Amino acid sequence: MDNLILGFESAVTVSNILWIAIGVTIGYIVGVLPGLGKGTAVAVAIPLTFYISPIAAISFLVGIAKGSGAGSAVSAILLNTPGEPSSAPTALDGYPLARQGKAQKALKMGLFASVIGDFSSTIVLILLAQPLAQFALKIGPVELTAILIFSLTFIAGLSGSSLSKGLVAGAFGVLCSTVGMEVENATERFTFGLLELSDGLSLIPVAIGMLAVAEMYVQMGNRVQLEAESALLKQTGDPADRRISWDEWKQCFPSILRGTAIGSAIGILPGLGASVGSFLSYGAAKRASKTPERFGKGALEGVAAAESADNAVIPASFVPLFAIGIPGSVIAAMLIAAFLIHGVTPGPRIFTEQAELVYGIYVSMLFASVLLLAIGFFGQRFFSRIVYVRMVFIIPVVIFLCAMGAYLQGNGIFGVVLMLIFGIVGFFAKKLDYSFVTFLIGFVIGPTLELSLRQSLSLTGSEISELIEHPVALAFVAMTVFALWRIIAREYQKNKIKRTALEALRA
Amino acid sequence: LAKANLISGTVLFLFSVVALLFIIPAQIDVAESANVISPRLVPIICVILIGGLSLFQVAKTALGISALRPKSGQSDSKKIIEMSPISKREWVALILLSAIILAAILIFIWLGALLASAWLIVVSMLVMGVKQPLPLIAIPAGVLFAAYVLFTHVLGTAIQ
Asked: Which of B80, B98, B121 is facing A502, going by the closest CB pair?
């Protein structure tokens, strides 16, 4: 409690609240624009945070992530084009509601559900992260290696459609993290005689390239289709669509609570992501409904279920980040970069060494939820108009911001070159379904994984039988094998269904 | 996606072979003492993993293609095999945007940040079909001015 008061004191400053408000607003705008996700926005914004205090920096980025999560519902409801994949289930009922002249009602329910999911999930983060960190402090390098391998396998299996491709992406990420000076032997690796590579590949240009530039390639290729969808949008003027009745609240509240619980649970597990959360929550709401036939035709509970889970995932995904130092999502990986810029290493020790910072971030996250409600509610009309902005004006500006971000945080113009290279790599990864999420997480945890693996090999004398001395590590090895088995079985089933469908098509 | 899987799997497998045989030996020295864990260890593990899994992907896709191989008169299976995940428009966007960024890098080196930034925004808009002079002037001017104010006055830094 003392820590929370301490965090409150350091977080409640005019400048910090202003940065949160700016972050939420930028996030909301980016979320509204179809195709621009929170990963893109956070990656581009990280270099700006170098010049502000650590609490304001992290709060600003968290504000962007939260705003973007909520804003993506706007284009899903108005255009049937989700701002992010996790808002796809929102469009299933939101768009039919908009077509029925109830766009404002759907937008309001989307916002309220987002804020409730987000706020509750932040409470879950506050309650869970520190006890988990106390456990994490007791683990050694052998256990840490097993946990990291388990996390990477889990993320590889679940963040894309193919386990083998996911593992390739993860291995490629770890391989890229080995570029530069190796700490133990002071040996240069993959530097190709370039001085700029001695310190390794900088995370910011790599992340901006993989997330933002790759996305811009795709958006530029699909801009004609996106703009045609914007042109179809019609304004509704029915006053009945502007408020949510008490009966509708009562109808939606169980879906919001269920969605929050599902989103929080999914967020804590590394790699599952907001899309899994929102689809699961939508499915659960439909199954629980007495009138499931209304879903897909304009059920307000559908919007509430999807949005509450979508936004609950973000704060919960910081639990493994704060407690163990493992990023469970792209946003968490991006936050590691922001922490490192300010000389802070996330992980279990952060609660003892930087308690004021952590609790300041917690309080800022709660403030971000409140500001999300205020900015979303009062700015709804403005945000609804943003969907009209043409992609031909947005893409060049985003590309400029990307180049500027890469320049500032990646050894000058060499950072822009890196951004371009990883932009092209990211484009192919996206299109060929090699999970860029797994790549980035592999890239971020790579140095820790290598260090703990080396220490483990020294401790155990490279003897596998020594693992018996480390039951926690053994448990995680078993969990990795189990996860692999389950994911392979799921993929086999999916392929079988696909083959049967194709054979039926041919017959 | 089958053909794309086959190509990407083969490229990654070849990359892993080249990395294992040539790049790693040329770019990473061996450990100086037998008691020290080699700095090549993790890169080698990663490259073997990439190569092995890519080979597995190639084999899996090849088996899938042979199961789908079209019988006479069945063009749907062939279409599914040949289907590209990257559209023609996306290829064009990839090439054009990469060329614009590359040119901006060269302009930055030879002529400075202001011209490179203006080039990046204006040429991207022109390539995407913006022809009206107002946005072509107003957007780059507004964005560059905003960036200048943000970095020099709000954040207190400067882009050289």
From this structure: B80
Is A439:A172 a contact under the CB 8 Å cutoff? yes
d(C-alpha A417, C-alpha A410), whole Å: 9
Cβ of B49 and A168 within 8 Å?
yes
A432 → closest Cβ in B85, B122, B157: B85
> Are B87 and A221 spatial neighbours (Cβ–Cβ below 8 Å)?
yes
A184·B39 Cβ contact <8 A: yes
More confidently predicted of A327 and B122: B122
Q: Does A175 contact chain B (CB < 8 Å)? A: yes
**For B73-123, what is each residue's pLDDT tens digit?**
555 666 665 667 888 888 999 999 999 999 999 999 999 889 999 999 999
Nearest CA in chain A to B92: A221
- Quick one: tokens of B123? 């040429």
Contacts of A495 in chain B (CB under 8 A): 64
Chain B: closest CA distance from residue A175 (Å): 6
Residue A155: closest CA among A273, A280, A51, A46: A273
The answer to whether B46 contacts A178, with C-beta atoms less than 8 Å apart, is yes
pLDDT digit string, tens, across residues A292-320:
888 888 888 889 998 899 889 888 888 88
Element (H, E) at A181: strand A180-181
Tell me, yes or no, if A392 comes closer than 8 A to chain B by beta carbon.
Answer: yes
Q: Do residue A434 and residue B42 have CB atoms under 8 angstroms apart?
A: no
Please state, as a whole number, how many other Cβ atoms lie within 10 Å of the Cβ of residue A40: 28
Could you tell me which of A279, A405, A269 has the C-alpha nearest to residue A334? A405
A220 touches chain B (CB under 8 A): yes
For A181, phi then psi, to 5°, come to -75, 125
Other beta carbons within 10 angstroms of residue A296's beta carbon come to: 15
**Which chain B residues touch A216 with a CB distance below 8 Å?**
97
ipTM of the complex: 0.90
Chain centroid to CA A461: how far?
A: 38
Span A47-92, pLDDT tens digits:
778 778 888 888 899 899 888 888 888 877 877 666 677 777 888 8
pLDDT band with cut points at 50, 70 and 90 for residue A93: confident
SS3 content of chain B, % helix, strand, coil (to 5): 75, 0, 25
Distances A356 to A11, A153, A247 between C-alpha atoms, Å: 9, 34, 43
